[in-house]
């Protein structure tokens, strides 16, 4: 009978009769079981190629428009850095920017010099750093190594950050437009919202891992593709490779994606309208996941061993899960880097400007509820299963993001929440609960896309259309992103840039900047990144910005435990006062330098404090009191440390 569906090669084909003859119309089964028709011309493909049809041309124009908007918005958000990547820095997170620049330089250096990209002795001498338990972005470092050598780590960092934002929009647009909705407008709105949502723009403050949101739709697609009969082997291999790539760029994001898919699939499969379908798909899904585990396990065997059993590992982090939880009121608040924030409607409900993980604003929350209700009323039982799964996923991750204790408008209520039951579990204890709110963003984006798709398929009356348009405008326009805040940063000293340091440091020897390299004083890793990327050779540094052991209760901490030398320098730099120097403190400082194997101590004319200004004169006088008079070399003060 005309119109009966036939399954061929994983698609549903519907035969029908048109005045001009026989038509074959592909109707694709979406990854969550929603069937949608692909518009076709009522003529044979041989008479008129699909690429020449008006529908195809409109589709290409829509694709190009979304791509253009995605690139323009990415450039707009990062525009402050494009003025001069080498002399500008992200104002609110210069520390992480310095770290990622160093990771790019070190990763390229390790690749070209046959070194271990996941463990290094270049920082934190003599113990080294386990990069497998840090955010190593190994894939980015390897892929962009030629660019890092060509234009330097700061510019490469900016290129990746900009591409991350644009690629996230394009990946979500591909998933939505090719698998979930018919309308390209619906797919574009949903994708652009996800890519430039408050959480993504917030993490664009130097987080190359979290802005790699393009990984999520690829992982979602690959998981649902395992349902296809006979595709479990190939699908499992593809998913395994994707898992390995995601682990090497954003391990925490991969963990959250896996949790979200687990919650969604469980809720979806338990719905009465989907149980039979889920039961039929389960064998192929399990086979595919088995292949995924095997492929990812082989590719990640060494990184996983380093992560859980290697040297300098740790369990959990030193971050307080109560502090790094999402304020319940933050879901209805506006973010700083948005149109609403620009007119003064932003708040201070996030633990820091890089963690505005929800901040949807009350109008968008109301719109999401209205969209859900409208879709529910119009949905068949099978579509309602999808809506239930989306709602459950959003609710679970919103509640978990509130952390172990509820906080409302900056005040802790003392109310214990479900995350308190999970905080002690392995892997979970290394995640920041506030970031779980990022899972809610794609759910909202999908709801927006579904709603627009429904409205375009069955247009309401004029007044209803105006009401919907006003609702979308009121919800989304205030969230339009504004550029990241940037500031000037001092250049790499000529002593380093010109390679003069090689006259004072033996190959692979130890140089320490003043103050020591930490998250708040990242100069040492910036200098080291410059030397590595410009093929000057290697010098090592004490301390550094990294996560390592030594925190409370066996957890991790930022940098190594402090010693006498860096404690005295920190005091001088912060207060501008030279601490009292005794024979005992001189002896302890020399013990520190001997422990690290330091050959020279270097103080530039301008120290870059990532969180606060430092007093260079007080630092110079303090080191002079400890080590004697310095010598002037190029644009730095230098103290030679005699070998003992």
TrEMBL record:
Q: Does the keyword Protease apply?
A: no
Q: What name has this protein been given in UniProt?
A: Predicted membrane protein
State whether keyword ATP-binding applies: no
Where would I find the DUF6311 domain in this sequence? 116-413
Q: Which InterPro entries match?
A: DUF6311 (IPR046278)
**Ranges that cross the membrane:** 131-151, 157-176, 183-201, 207-225, 232-249, 255-273, 285-305, 359-378, 385-403, 432-452, 464-485
Keyword annotations for this protein, in alphabetical order, are: Membrane, Transmembrane, Transmembrane helix
| Record-linked Pfam families | DUF6311
Q: Which organism is it from?
A: Micromonospora coxensis
> Record's superkingdom?
Bacteria
């Amino acid at each position: 009978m005309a119109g009966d569906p036939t399954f061929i090669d994983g698609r549903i084909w519907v035969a029908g009769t048109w005045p001009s003859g026989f038509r074959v119309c592909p109707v694709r089964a979406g990854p969550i079981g929603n069937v949608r028709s692909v518009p076709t011309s009522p003529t044979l493909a041989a008479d008129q190629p699909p690429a020449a049809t008006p529908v195809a041309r409109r589709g290409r124009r829509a694709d190009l428009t979304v791509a253009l908007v995605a690139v323009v918005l990415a450039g707009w958000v990062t525009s402050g850095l494009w003025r001069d990547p080498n002399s500008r820095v992200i104002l609110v997170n210069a520390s992480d920017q310095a770290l990622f620049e160093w990771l790019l330089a070190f990763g390229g250096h390790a690749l070209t010099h046959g070194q271990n990209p996941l463990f290094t002795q270049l920082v934190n001498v003599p113990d080294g750093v386990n990069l497998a338990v840090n955010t190593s972005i190994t894939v980015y470092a390897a892929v962009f190594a030629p660019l890092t050598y060509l234009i330097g780590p700061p510019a490469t960092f900016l290129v990746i950050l900009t591409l991350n934002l644009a690629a996230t929009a394009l990946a979500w647009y591909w998933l939505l437009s090719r698998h979930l909705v018919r309308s390209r407008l619906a797919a574009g709105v949903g994708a652009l919202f996800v890519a430039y949502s408050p959480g993504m723009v917030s993490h664009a403050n130097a987080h190359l891992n979290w802005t790699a949101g393009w990984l999520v739709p690829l992982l979602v697609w690959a998981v649902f593709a395992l349902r296809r009969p006979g595709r479990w082997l190939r699908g499992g291999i593809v998913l395994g490779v994707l898992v390995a790539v995601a682990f090497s760029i954003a391990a925490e994001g991969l963990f959250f994606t896996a949790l979200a898919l687990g919650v969604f699939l469980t809720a979806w499969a338990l719905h009465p309208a989907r149980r039979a379908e889920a039961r039929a798909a389960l064998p192929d899904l399990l086979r595919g996941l088995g292949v995924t585990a095997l492929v990812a396990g082989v590719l990640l065997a060494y990184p996983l061993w380093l992560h859980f059993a290697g040297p300098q590992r740790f369990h959990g982090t030193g971050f307080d899960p109560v502090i790094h939880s999402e304020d319940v009121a933050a879901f209805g608040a506006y973010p700083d880097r948005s149109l609403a924030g620009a007119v003064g409607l932003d708040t201070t409900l996030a633990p820091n400007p890089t963690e505005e993980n929800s901040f949807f604003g009350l109008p968008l929350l109301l719109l999401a509820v209205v969209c859900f209700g409208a879709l529910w009323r119009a949905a068949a039982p099978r579509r309602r299963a999808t809506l239930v799964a989306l709602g459950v996923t959003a609710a679970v991750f919103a509640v978990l993001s509130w952390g172990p204790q509820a906080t409302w408008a900056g005040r802790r209520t003392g109310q214990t929440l479900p995350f308190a039951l999970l905080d002690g579990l392995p892997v979970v204890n290394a995640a920041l609960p506030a970031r779980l709110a990022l899972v809610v963003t794609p759910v909202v984006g999908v709801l927006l896309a579904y709603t627009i798709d429904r409205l375009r398929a069955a247009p309401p009356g004029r007044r209803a259309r105006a009401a919907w348009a006003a609702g979308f405008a009121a919800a989304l326009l205030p969230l339009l992103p504004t550029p990241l805040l940037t500031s000037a940063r001092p250049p790499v000293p000529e002593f380093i840039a010109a390679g003069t340091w090689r006259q004072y440091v033996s190959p692979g020897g130890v140089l320490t900047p003043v103050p020591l390299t930490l998250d708040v004083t990242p100069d040492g890793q910036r200098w080291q990144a410059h030397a590595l990327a410009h093929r000057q050779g290697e010098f090592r540094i004490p301390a550094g910005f990294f996560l390592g052991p030594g925190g409370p209760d066996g957890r991790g901490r930022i940098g190594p435990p402090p010693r006498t030398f860096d404690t005295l320098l920190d005091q001088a730099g912060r207060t501008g006062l030279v601490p009292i120097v005794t024979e005992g403190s001189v002896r302890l400082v020399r013990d520190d330098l001997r422990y690290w194997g330091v050959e020279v101590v270097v103080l530039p004319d301008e120290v870059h404090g990532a969180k606060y200004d430092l007093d260079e004169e007080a630092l110079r006088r303090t080191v002079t009191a400890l080590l004697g008079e310095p010598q002037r070399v190029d644009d730095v003060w230098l103290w030679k440390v005699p070998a003992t």
